[in-house]
Specification:
The structure holds 2 protein chains of 2 kinds. Chain A is an alpha/beta fold. Chain A contains 24 helices and 34 strands. Chain A has a 7-stranded mixed β-sheet with strand order 15-14-25-24-23-16-17, sandwiched between helices. In chain A, helix 9 runs parallel beside helix 15, helix 9 packs across helix 16 and helix 13 runs parallel beside helix 15. The two termini of chain B are 43 Å apart. In chain B, helix 2 packs across helix 9. Chain B is globular, with a radius of gyration of 22 Å. By secondary structure, chain B is α/β, with parallel strands linked by helices. The chains are: A alpha/beta, B alpha/beta. At the A-B interface, helix 2 of A face helix 13, helix 14 and helix 15 of B.
Chain lengths: 831, 432
């Protein structure tokens, strides 16, 4: 390992380490603009100039472009490098506007910091500054090109790292321009990273525009609740508003990047209809009143009809604490109440099926940070960018680094160009395809089966070879497009690889930020006799008499289920989202969002991560303003600031319903969980902002749930619902401007089917006597015989995955949606 | 003197067509080489010939050829020869003259070089504004192809090679070899970090050598007559070959001529009729805008690579710009620096922002608005730009400013003291 002297500090670094990283290792932050660890050195900004002395010769070098060599003496303190860096600042400030007082970057501006740090203070030239015309880049990002210092971070990230094509560099000399060919929303679902990457204020968060100075924000370590990747975020709040969400660097998980859903999907927190006060029978109440009524009613139902007639339901967006408190409620008079860990029976089964595979496979988990390091990666049964955007960004890096990326997908757009091969795979055939692949890995070439598409055998042969020969093979599966046989085939593929000496890292996607955690709890519930989805199914079918729904999204459960819920003897809802069940509930208990509370989520890789809240909720100050000015004196307590973290409310409810003291601190509740099973040991010790702990599913006994196979319908198309990148999951669906950027729901068809049906603009889907009309588009990569719709598409009664539907082309209405690319629609001009 | 590069003559002052070129002995070297020489021998001959790159840097060509010998690059895939005809250096027009008069010499030189370096395809990257040379070269390429001198199994040998003409979109930076390669690939013409060098990772990631037009035009002669003959052509003992020299600015008859390399500056000036109007010589930029000033005391200096370095300048392209006693060097420098600032690709900060800063200071000084502090700042500015930018563009821009400050600091100070250009009065008199 080369040993160098950096500003007098001796440090040994890995061979190949550049001097910026070596400086950090020595505790010397070398100034940087264009360099960013994940993008690598560019050599454009020149601010990282340092003096290097080697064998008696001294010269100025760019730290990012220079690798540490044994015996180097590096310094940032000599007059020559200081003079040069001061010049760099003076050059960059020649054209940079002095609009810092109204710039949203002010206070966290790298240019501001380094201009001061490098010692440039006085403008020595008098000439007009360069100006540019800004572009409308959509509803998320504000463009302010006059501030640009031409570091190329944005274009390098957008094009090279994230594979975007609609944004880049034009122009030359001192008129280099970063933008699009023409005004329009940025198409990449990772556009929000430009805000964080830009060392100054060219790209700022439109949602945060002019709302606060950053130093006034209350900030915490939190976890993004919009999918199961578990990215670390930094919510920033002020005036009782969640004003923005930014990525929080965590090298063990998401690194420094975040997707647009996570960054801009937080509008649900300030939704005006959000329940903020306890309510009983439609009237505002105190917590004590509401808890007393809820406890009394639930216990009364249990006494009258038996505890088995009461369902206690939480979902995969509820924290571990909430789930633990919910289970603790099922004692005393409520002992025997039926627990449900998911708010969707089918997704519950799939989550358990995935967990069962992980528990038995004996493979290490495919952690988020390991995805990009794979030299061969198979992504199967998902459109990754839609279901777990940041996992897709990591998967793209496999291809960028020259690894072999393969996709067995249904409408995968994002990875299609970079992948070595994409096999559009009908979900009903995924098991067969995976089985054939497993056989090939084992050295056996199966005779092609009758339904096998031409060319599949060659792709599978290449894929089998790539996986077997890889030093770091990885398998990443979705879950919503997998049937029972596909989960079994995924397990046998992992086993076959292990048998061939190439044990893969194995991962699945889970529903929701705590899907893995909820599945692990459901597995334990199942061990004590309750089926993972039985309670919920009985509840939705109208077989039960009372229910407590905690953070459940049952809006799309169908009219029959909703009326069954409305007719319960007792319906208690504990949530922060408004909806038909909040309106129908006998008792409403207002909960806090992720950003307003502390808790623990287990992400899709099994990593438990703790988080804390950034704000105490309450009516946002702006809603209380009469004369437009903010109050000078804080009020003693936030008005309508009456919500509690869900677990806290459940503990209080337990005290009312069952008796005994309510836990008031998180560790109390997690301690009980940790003691319940070795799988959970240490769960109460996690601290927010740390790498967390990866839980080992092999410690769990997970019964394989009963999960039917998808069948290819004899007539019509097989319908599959999945997330789309923006705005289809319950949280970001309620967020403005996410909804506008997401555009209307879209049905995706294979080009063959679209042609055969004559679909140009819109399509009508019919099944079971119901019909839905929506915009449609042909997309290469969608297998024949399949129609893919967003998960939030509303049917009067929900249809199971793989249901047969009839599709009929409708006459085009208005403009057709654009060509391939994220489903974003232009929504207006730059004001 | 016997002309080598401009030997073949066309009719009526037009380009030498294939038959004219053949009449002057053209393509004999190619046939000879394909028949008689192993590629490796040719590399050795060029090494011994002392040929140095004529594009400005003077890098030994034989050494450059030997970089292509790495076995890992010989995997049966494509290997490229790229001819840099993006002649955009201010005051430089020698490659244009060569292509306009003797295009087949370039084609033959490329074919021989490609044979020696075992290349599969050639590109000529030509300056956008060279409309006529492009037409001439395109025609000559067609002639050569029709005659079997380019294309599959050329001249009946087992060697196949063809040349494509690519017209630049028109930026000075395209003359920088890695920016040229980026431009040729259809990307933004921005220099690449070196290493990897083009010989290992060039055009589309394949082994590539980039040569100036004139360098390649020297190759047929060396191949035909040998290294010793080529060395013997030079006027000074350390040189090799002939050189296309050209003058511009304050000379009586600016034109391009071929002379032994190392011919003294004074002699070349003399042949062009001396300084215009019989004025006294103030300064000469010997090889284009990015070379340092020579003055009247350097008239005996041999115009060759090493001697000019000893005089604190560079041969560059060998096409010199002359300033007379009536020409304000500060004004000339404003003009040059505006060019360099305009032609920056915009990639690195010192070049993109520092060069316009220099223009600003020079304009103030030239107009008599400057201060002594600004003269010092000008010096400090370019000392910081020069060695610290990403490619050689800004380094080249800084060189003549260094010369201005070394040779003509007095004139700069006069501008400050007199609050105006001391040459302005003289210019007015001259035009009165």
């Amino acid at each position: 390992m080369p040993e160098i002297l950096f500003d007098g500090r001796r440090v040994a670094v890995e061979p190949g380490t550049n001097l910026v990283e070596a400086g950090l290792a020595a505790g010397v932050p070398v100034p940087i603009y264009c360099y960013q660890r994940d993008l690598g050195p560019a050599g454009a900004c020149r601010v990282c100039a340092v003096s290097v002395t080697m064998q008696g010769k001294s010269r100025l070098v760019m730290a990012c472009m220079t690798q540490a060599a044994d015996g180097m003496e590096v310094t940032t303190l000599d007059p020559r490098s200081r003079e040069f860096r001061r010049w760099v600042s003076e050059w960059l400030m020649m054209n940079h506007p002095h609009d810092c007082p109204v710039c949203d970057e002010g206070g966290e501006c790298q240019l501001q910091d380094l201009t001061i740090a490098t010692g440039h203070g006085i403008r020595r030239i008098q000439r007009p500054k360069r100006t540019f015309r800004n572009q409308y880049l959509g509803e998320f990002i504000q463009h302010e090109m006059n501030r640009c210092i031409t570091c190329y971070r944005c274009s390098r990230f957008y094009q090279e790292y994230a594979g975007g094509r609609d944004f880049g560099v034009t122009g030359s000399r001192d008129r280099v321009y970063f933008g699009r060919f023409a005004d329009g929303p940025l198409e990449s679902p990772f556009s929000g990273n430009l805000v964080e990457l830009c060392p100054t204020g060219v790209f700022t968060d439109k949602l945060f525009r002019y709302r606060s100075r950053v130093w006034d924000l209350e900030i915490s370590h939190s976890i993004c609740p919009h999918c199961s990747v578990g990215c670390n975020v930094r919510p920033g709040a002020r005036h009782r508003e969640l004003q923005r969400v930014r990525v929080s660097e965590n090298r063990a998980v998401n690194g420094v990047f975040l997707c647009d859903r996570g960054q801009f999907g937080h509008g649900y927190v300030e939704e005006p209809r959000r329940p903020r006060e306890p309510r009983v029978a439609g009237r505002a109440a105190t917590w004590d009143e509401a808890l007393a009524v809820a406890a009394g009613d639930l216990v009364a139902v249990a006494r009258e009809h038996g505890p088995g007639s009461v369902a206690l339901v939480a979902s995969s967006r509820a924290t571990l604490e909430t789930h633990a408190a919910l289970a603790a409620l099922a004692t005393g008079p409520l002992a025997g109440a039926r627990l449900a860990r998911f708010d969707d029976p089918a997704r519950a089964r799939r989550a358990l099926a995935a967990l069962a595979v992980l528990a038995r496979a004996g493979c290490p988990p495919l952690e988020q940070r390991e995805i990009g390091a794979c030299d061969a990666l198979l992504v199967a049964g998902t459109s990754l960018v839609d279901e777990a955007p940041l996992a897709a960004l990591a998967a793209l890096q496999v291809a960028r680094r020259g690894g072999a990326l393969f996709v067995l997908g249904a409408g995968e757009r994002y990875l299609a160009d970079a992948a070595k091969a994409v096999l559009p795979t009908h979900p009903s055939r995924l098991a067969a395809t995976l089985g054939a692949l497993a056989a090939r890995v084992g050295g056996e070439a199966r005779a092609p089966e009758p339904r096998e598409p031409a060319g599949e055998a060659e792709v599978l042969a290449g894929l089998a070879r790539a996986l077997r020969e890889a030093r770091r093979p990885g398998l990443l599966f979705g879950s919503d497009l997998l049937d029972g046989p596909a989960f079994a085939a995924a397990a046998s593929l992992a086993r076959a690889l292990a048998g061939a000496g190439a044990t893969p890292r194995l991962g699945f996607l889970f529903p929701g930020p705590n899907g893995f955690g909820a599945a692990a709890l459901a597995a334990a519930d199942a061990a004590s006799g309750s089926s993972p989805a039985g309670a919920l199914e009985d509840l939705l079918a109208g077989h039960l008499r009372g229910a407590l729904l905690v953070e459940c999204d049952l809006e799309r459960a169908g009219t029959r289920a909703l009326s069954a819920l409305r007719e319960l003897d007792c319906l208690v809802v504990l949530d922060y989202l408004a909806g038909p069940l909040v309106d129908a509930a006998h008792v409403v208990l207002p909960a806090r969002t992720t950003y307003e509370s502390s808790g623990t989520y287990v992400n899709r890789e099994g990593r438990a991560q703790a988080f804390t809240g950034a704000l105490v909720p309450g009516e946002p100050v702006r809603a209380l303003l009469h004369d437009g000015s903010f109050p000078r004196h804080p009020l003693p307590a936030p008005p309508r600031g009456n919500s509690w973290p869900a677990w806290r409310a459940l503990e209080e409810l337990r005290a009312w319903a069952v008796g005994g003291p309510a836990a008031r601190e998180r560790p109390e509740i997690l301690g009980a969980l940790a003691a319940s099973h070795p799988f959970w040991s240490g769960i109460e010790t996690l601290t927010p902002g740390s790498p967390g702990a990866v839980l080992d599913p092999a410690r769990l006994a997970v019964a394989v749930p009963d999960l039917a196979a998808f069948a290819e319908p004899a007539a019509g198309l097989a319908l599959f619902a999945r997330d789309r990148t923006l705005g289809s999951e319950p949280l970001s669906r309620r967020a403005e401007p996410m909804r506008r950027m997401a555009g209307p729901p879209l049905a995706l068809l294979s080009p063959d089917d679209a042609t055969a049906l004559g679909v140009a603009g819109r399509v009508e889907l019919r099944a079971d006597g119901q019909a839905v009309a929506l915009a449609a588009r042909a997309l290469a990569g969608v297998p024949r015989g399949v129609v893919i719709v967003p998960r939030d598409l509303e049917w009067p009664e929900p249809l199971p995955q793989g249901a047969a539907v009839e599709a009929r082309a409708l006459a085009e209405e208005g403009a057709a949606p654009g060509p391939d690319g994220p489903q974003r629609a232009a929504t207006g001009a730059d004001p | 003197m016997e002309e080598v590069l401009l030997k073949a003559k066309g009719r009526d002052g037009g380009p030498a067509l294939l038959e004219d070129y053949r009449a002057a002995g053209g393509y004999a070297a190619l046939a000879h080489v394909l028949r008689e020489r192993a590629p490796q021998d040719l590399v050795e001959i060029v090494k011994q010939s002392g040929l140095r790159g004529r594009g400005g840097a003077g890098f030994p060509s034989g050494l450059k050829w030997s970089f292509m010998g790495a076995p890992e690059g010989k995997d049966g895939g494509a290997r490229y020869l790229v001819c840099n005809a993006d002649e955009m250096e201010p005051g430089t027009y020698k490659d244009r003259v060569l292509i306009e008069r003797n295009p087949h010499l370039l084609i033959e030189g490329m074919a021989i070089a490609a044979y020696a370096m075992e290349m599969t395809e050639g590109y000529v990257f030509i300056r956008r504004e060279y409309f006529e040379p492009s037409r001439i070269l395109e025609r000559a390429l067609g002639e050569a192809r029709a005659a079997g001198l380019l294309g599959p199994r050329l001249a009946g040998s087992g060697f196949s090679f063809d040349i494509h003409l690519h017209r630049s979109a028109g930026r000075y930076i395209c003359g920088e070899e890695t920016a040229l390669l980026s431009g040729l690939e259809g990307r933004r013409a921005i220099p690449r970090a070196k290493p990897p060098y083009p010989a290992a990772h060039g055009l589309w990631g394949r082994p590539t050598t980039v040569h100036n037009v004139e360098t390649l035009a020297c190759v047929p002669g060396i191949a035909a007559h040998g290294a010793a003959w080529f060395k013997g052509l030079a006027a000074n003992p350390e040189g090799a070959g002939t050189k296309l020299y050209a003058g511009s600015g304050a000379v009586e008859r600016p034109h391009c001529l071929e002379r032994p390399i190392g011919t003294p500056l004074g002699e070349l000036l003399e042949e062009m009729g001396g300084v215009r109007g019989g004025r006294k010589l103030l300064a000469v930029m010997p090889g284009g805008a990015s070379t340092n000033f020579l003055t009247a005391e350097h008239l005996d200096a041999p115009m060759d690579f090493d001697p000019l370095v000893r005089h604190g300048s560079r041969l560059g392209t060998g096409t010199f710009i002359v300033l007379s006693e009536d020409d304000c060097p500060v004004r000339a420098m404003v003009n040059l620096q505006r060019f360099f600032a305009r032609e920056s690709c915009g990639f690195c900060t010192p070049c993109r922002e520092g060069l316009p800063y220099g223009v600003y200071l020079l304009q103030r000084l030239e107009r008599g608005e400057g201060t002594r502090e600004e003269i010092d700042r000008l010096e400090n500015l370019y000392l910081n730009i020069g060695p610290n930018s990403f490619c050689a563009h800004a380094t080249g821009a800084a060189e003549p400013v260094g010369g201005l400050l070394r040779h003509f600091r007095g004139i700069l100070e006069e501008h400050v003291k007199e609050r105006g250009c001391p040459f302005a009065a003289r210019r007015e008199l001259a035009h009165a």
